[in-house]
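Problem: given the chain below (197 residues), write out its structure.
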Amino acid sequence: MRSETEAPRAWQRMLSGRRLNLLDPSPLDIEIEDIAHGLARVARWNGQTIGPHAFSVAQHSLIVESVVTELAPRSGRQARLMALLHDAPEYVVGDLISPFKAAVGIDYKDFERRLLAAIHIRFGLPSRAPNELLAVIKRADRISAHQEATQLAGFSAAEAKRFFGTLPTGLKKRRLVPLAPLEAQTLFLEQFRRLSA
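Solution.
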């Protein structure tokens, strides 16, 4: 039991044995295996998707990285790696849906940005992606969300268009099937290793 004067615990113990301080994250306490494991077990859409498995943030991240490659075919490995890791903070904090983030009393976006900066530094990336790349990643994120919403989360085409915009023409058609956590984790790690080699 914690005493009245003792500060509340602000760290998360990882399976690697690392302790990540959520209020002051150190790149030294970040391991890609922890990220992949966590993201493969965090459900997009609060788990409100069809199929025997939740659609994970790891699988979403793989799609966003592939859409970034389609939208900006000259993207180098570093840009693609930043796209793959765009939601990496969610391995610790989970995937809060946008309406809930807006209702949370703290500056949640700032919290996520600090953790993402530590993740970037850990893997030799700039602490913040360039604005041009951030715009492409955001667009790819919305494209993925549109496809997830209509294929997995029960949105009508009109609802998806209203919330996520129109899908660009000529984009590769993706049939989304939620993967088992271990499969999503493995694919995420494989793509990370390809891009960081």
